[in-house]
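Morning, I've got a small favour to ask if you have a moment. It would help a lot if you went through both lines with me. Thanks so much in advance, here it is.

***
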Amino acid sequence: MYDFQHPLSDAKEGITHSLCSMEYEIHRPLYEWFIREAEVFPSRQIEFARLNLTRTVMSKRWLLKLVEEKYVSGWDDPRMPTIAGLRRRGYTPEAIRSFVSQVGIAKTESMADIAFLEYCLREHLNKTSRRVMAVLKPLKLVIDNWPAGKVEELEAVNNPEDESAGTRKIPFSGELWIEREDFEEVPPPKYFRLYPGNSVRLRYGYIVTCTGCNKDPAGNVIAVHCTYDPETRGGNAPDNKKVKSTIHWVSAPHAIPIEARIYDYLFSVDRPMDVEAGKSFTDNLNPDSLEVIDPAWAEPSLAEAKGGDRFQFERLGYFVRDACSGDAAGDAGGGDGKQVFNKTVGLRDTWSRIVSQQAKHK
């Protein structure tokens, strides 16, 4: 019955071009016969190959299986390739349109690299996302020579790609949160961040020099100590002292707690449906596709973020304020009322790296 409903429905709705996937190609003669014999609006059927992406599945049948068997939290799970999932992940309509227009339409079945979709997304978010600072895996940084109780307000750029985005004020104090990976007691080769005796630039702040660290009874570093140079506000040294690394931070007394959800690819292989006999495509699911970090710490300006607002967490990637609720990994307020931010995509331009590598081998 669908063979008769399809052309009649298109004709009644005035559809000029009915776009179908390639399996409908053999149905086109009947489609055209019906329109001709019924003397209705002359819709035209055109077939094209499905859009396939690496590291995911696009068929509704297989997506339904993931939902019903609770491999994901629902159709809007940020790991799903649905419009609802992409929206919740922080994808923009402009990025999706750019990707689709550049991939183009073909009759040959092909597989588009998801890295190219991420490239299109990153290109748009870089121009439109406000920069903020957040620390996901915190380590306390204590500035020993900072005046007790003093708080300064530093001016930070909201988006260097858009002058109209303006600036904002961020508090700076003698106790900061930094990323745990930004300190090494015994640094590996070519490590330019904090270690005893080394200096780094605090983003928008001062140049600090590490003097040591505190450890708990198990030997874990729980705090890093440093001194700051008051003459280096803004990060520039009057004597043109060279500092090789700049790290981000948030003021510990002023930071707000957030929950960060770090999403990775849903599948661990490029072609999830390519499985051995006796196995299912679900055997290719990535067990590490979601990491929940709670608590993380963010600058106080994020307290005003609304659902769907997109940001670049400096040095960490692009994140979106989760606007959904109702599932275990989807309560927009977190389990204890914290704001939830979903990682959209990292800062690294994977697609450009792939293209560069391919060019080298030509």
Summary: The chain has three domains: 2-48, 52-131+257-362, 134-248. The longest strand covers residues 207-215.
